[in-house]
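Sample entry (576 residues):
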Amino acid sequence: MKPTNPDHPLLALRQAGGYACALDFGLIVVSGPEAGKFLQSRTTNDVAALQSGQGQLSCLLDRKAHIEACFSLHRLDDEFWIVAERAQISEIFGQLDKFLFNTKAEVVDRSDQGQFATVQGYLARKLLAKGSRVDILLQAGRFCIARIDLWSCPTVLIERSLTGEDGYLVWCNTADGRQLRSELRQSAAELSLVELSNEALNMARIEAGLPLYGTDMSLDNLLPETGLEAQSVSYTKGCYLGQEVIARIKTYGAPRRGLCGLRFAEGANLSFPVGAAIFLDGKEIGSLQSNVYSPFLERTIALAYLNKEHRVPGERISIAVSGTTYPVEVTLLPIYEPPTIKERVRGLYEEALAEFATGDETKSITLLRDALILDPLHADCYESLGVILSRQERLEEAVSVMKKLAELDPNSVMAHANLSVFYMQLGNKEAAEEEKAVAMSIRMQQIAREVDHKRKDAETQKEKREATLARMEMFRQVLAIDSEDLLANAGLGSIHVELEEYEQAIPFLVKSIQVKPTHSMSYLALGAAYAGMDRLDEATTTYRQGIEVAAKRGDMMPLKEMQLQLAKVEQLKACH
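Predicted structure, serialized as tokens:
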């Protein structure tokens, strides 16, 4: 089925990328000698762990762990930048300002001193590369931040996805805004990237399962209901407002309801008021939040709070909203997950090799350069690019490619070995010998480290096995006293799986599930035991049962792992 609107900017975003020049985001800057200590005591994440250039998702809570604000927080030198939708800025500022007291810190709302633009999609890095050299920055990780000149405009670049795709926010002062917008539009046009409307950004946000404060969460919501605690909470930092409730929920189980996704029937173009009640068999089971028709997925999708017994991924149910019944599929978030950068790079690399095999070296070079913009440390791309350039007798370019790899990865043997070859082809024997010696030195150091690592690994494995055998003996002693003990059965079975003794594991894990049918981890281990013995039908059944149990309990870690393992088992079954 072809998309009903192939020119929609959402489709362009998913296929390549897009940009937006004016976002409704604001900025608060916290500075001063006690700024970090102050934010550490107020926010949910570990501010003290941040180095300059790093960032994180974080929240402000009340005493009962209800959400007062949700934002990204970034450390830039000795300043802390808080980035959030403008609708949240006054609340964040007020909450921080009233707790300052005699703290040596200053909270400043800089929202009116500049503006944000954004670049989203897998070509985002290629677009930014037109304005500056950003390859080193782009390796810094999620929510990274750096000052950088883009098209000669002083900016601050922040890694933050608004769409589920690779994404960046660009902050510039108001005075530089017009020039930056002009350069951004021109460079985007050269790559055939479209300007993203608010409508397209909102569609992509819902597909990506990113809740919006004021729409999908508010002061009425506990943070764990949103699922954001996995990214925004540190369970090891010191006290902050709401910490006791967060810790208690983690210890004793999931909240009564949680945010998940709903996929309506293919082709269904529907719209619902935010907060509309959801009924199943006449009983209210949740509420609809953000919802939209997605021209990319060709169906209506929604974020929804569902009671935990109905939050089972893959479950198909018929819900009633405002008296009308609709068939839906329940999903974990995100509703749509685009290919990762790693997957994109692998695809470009393989396409480049295919083009090379057909004789189109020019196309191959272009694809390899695109791959290196996405992953500046992809050694295979550098080697292939250097080889093709040398085949075309573009030896100076080949040298430049390998020098860049050596700069980004000083321990790359490949970079120096290839430089030696290219210099020899250029007739520069002295440089060739020097690079050969560097490559040899690096390789000898690597060998020494590998030998040391093997020795340490052997010692670690020995210690681990001794500890494992001690745990097994402890569990056996417990079972000799009480054969029904849950933890002993589950523990002994899991250890047998870890040791790949699958047949021995099964009786203990089956027993643990008989003792407690809601023990999610036992289903995970039992599924692995069946899969290890190639009993794929039993593995499939076990994982599906375990997913349902984990979903109802809110055990997200084993749930996601069982989903992953179930997909692998089903692939194996398809190949048999």
